[in-house]
Write a sequence for this structure.
């Protein structure tokens, strides 16, 4: 029987508001600003003003079952950069900037359906001013046509929107509260994780702390990998059926699930789950022809091989991507079906759509190009270089950020089908080599969340309070070590929790065998590294 708890929304909001007020009183917030800093007053002060090139409109949003009362400040800079700030009733003296996803094009909402998209609301409940933007253009997050039509919008998306918005946001806070934020943090996942690292690398004094979740930092590289696997799946006989995906996932779980001390459908000891142990080659159909869901044809084996292999283009390690590890959760809803196969039509998959719009609008500036017929990916090296210069956040020497006191937390779901955990681990290792191990240990952390999909979802524990850890690190010099991650169901009930272990550790079960209740408690796991 699993362990279940549920948070009462109204009690949670009251407790958080009380804690935030106490925190602000002792952690550097402006007492004068806080005394008059309720949401209604802030809206009155800011209504209709233009501050630091941002034209503002304000609305008081009343409290609901989920959301506390706040002042919504809508800002517009220039012709097409829109942002939104949410000012709470009890400001804790801090600011939380939440990044966008995909190719952005809209302001992320305050609330969402999964653990990742609810993070801005968590910050607001705790008394943070929250900020988000559309990155300087409007449209679908799967549409990069803005980059072909408007070079200025492409530059805004690449690296300029966050510092541009922050320059205005800080002045807005000063106007409303009489002082700037005592601390400013950035948090984002996927493209938001890329934005996080872009800020660290190009604007090292902009934020006191940064959380880069599943960072798509090597944009040119992973899009090229998306292109490769999309072509594999579109090739004759390449598509993987639901049964074949289950075959692959079952093989991985059978070989690796118990390597962490418990068989629970989650491969936590990913380092020990080697290709040799999994033996994927044994799934090949006799003769290489498709013989149904009990084996993989040669065309289907190529999909798996290219998925797990490292790739680079243009004869340079600059444009590269590490292959994905097989997680054993490929058959979980929203993993391979949504991101890789498109449930039988590759053109419906998220990876296809992203590589397709990138090739049309960055690599060729031609909306009529058929990306599945486009080969090779690096046929236009000048375009690769230009796209990388705008969108890649690959510089590992982040010494200016660290020397300014910055703290950086990486997080990545172990079953992510969109961005490779191995790429994140490689960048983290490059940072350690560039800045030195001692400096990296003092100011950076990497956490992998076993069984978690892209930013959220999957069977693993996908809710982790990295903002609290970052704030304690930056404000109180309390460095994070092992954290706790939670899995909740669709109604908010806690199903289980797990330790969130600092890399290279993983959570190993040390509790009583065969006890489902014990297995649902993080206390019965230890963060270890196999020798």
């Amino acid at each position: 029987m699993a362990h279940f708890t549920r948070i009462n929304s109204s009690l949670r909001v009251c407790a958080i508001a009380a804690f935030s007020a106490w925190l602000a009183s002792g952690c550097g917030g402006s007492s004068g600003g806080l005394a008059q800093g309720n949401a209604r007053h802030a809206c009155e002060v800011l209504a209709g003003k233009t501050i630091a090139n941002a034209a503002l409109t304000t609305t008081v949003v009343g409290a609901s079952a989920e959301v506390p009362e706040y002042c919504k400040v809508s800002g517009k800079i220039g012709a097409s950069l829109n942002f939104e700030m949410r000012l709470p009733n009890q400001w804790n003296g801090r600011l939380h900037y939440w990044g966008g996803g995909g190719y952005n094009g809209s302001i992320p909402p305050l609330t969402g359906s999964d653990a990742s998209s609810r993070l801005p609301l968590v910050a607001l409940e705790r008394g943070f001013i929250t900020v988000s933007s559309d990155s300087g253009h409007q449209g679908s997050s799967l549409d990069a046509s803005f980059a072909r039509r408007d070079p200025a919008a492409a530059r805004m998306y690449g690296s300029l929107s966050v510092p541009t918005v922050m320059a205005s946001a800080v002045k807005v806070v000063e106007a409303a509260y009489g002082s700037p934020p005592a601390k400013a943090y950035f948090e984002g996942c996927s493209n938001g994780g890329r934005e996080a690292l872009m800020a660290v690398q190009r604007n090292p004094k902009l934020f006191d702390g940064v959380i880069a979740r599943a960072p798509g930092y090597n944009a040119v590289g992973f899009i090229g990998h998306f292109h490769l696997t999309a072509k594999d799946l579109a090739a004759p006989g390449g598509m993987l059926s639901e049964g074949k995906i289950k075959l692959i996932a079952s093989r991985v779980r059978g070989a690796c699930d118990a390597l962490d001390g418990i068989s629970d459908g989650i491969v936590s000891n990913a380092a020990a789950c080697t290709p040799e142990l999994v033996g994927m080659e044994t799934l090949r159909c006799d003769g290489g022809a498709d013989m149904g869901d009990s084996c993989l044809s040669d065309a289907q084996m190529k999909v798996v091989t290219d998925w797990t292999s490292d790739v680079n283009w243009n004869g340079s390690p600059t444009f590269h991507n590490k292959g994905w590890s097989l997680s054993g959760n490929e058959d979980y809803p929203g993993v391979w079906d949504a991101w890789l196969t498109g449930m039988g039509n590759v053109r419906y998959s998220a990876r296809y759509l992203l590589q397709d719009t990138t090739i049309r609008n960055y690599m060729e500036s031609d909306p009529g190009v058929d990306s599945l017929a486009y080969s090779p990916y690096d046929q236009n090296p000048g375009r690769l270089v230009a796209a990388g210069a705008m969108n890649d956040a690959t510089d590992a020497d982040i010494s200016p950020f660290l020397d300014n006191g910055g703290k950086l937390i990486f997080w990545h779901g172990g079953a992510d089908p969109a961005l490779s955990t191995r790429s994140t681990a490689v960048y983290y290792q490059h940072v350690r080599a560039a800045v030195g191990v001692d400096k990296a240990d003092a100011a950076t952390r990497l956490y992998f969340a076993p069984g978690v999909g892209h930013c959220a979802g999957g069977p693993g524990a996908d809710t982790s309070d990295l903002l609290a850890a970052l704030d304690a690190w930056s404000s109180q010099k309390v460095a994070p070590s092992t954290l706790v991650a939670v899995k909740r169901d669709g109604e908010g009930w806690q199903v289980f929790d797990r330790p969130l272990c600092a890399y290279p550790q993983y959570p190993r079960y040390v509790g009583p065998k065969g006890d489902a209740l014990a297995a649902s408690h993080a206390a019965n796991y230890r963060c270890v590294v196999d020798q």
User: Anything to note?
Assistant: The chain is about 40% helix and 20% strand. Residues 26-219+393-482 form a domain with the Rossmann fold fold (CATH 3.40.50.1820).
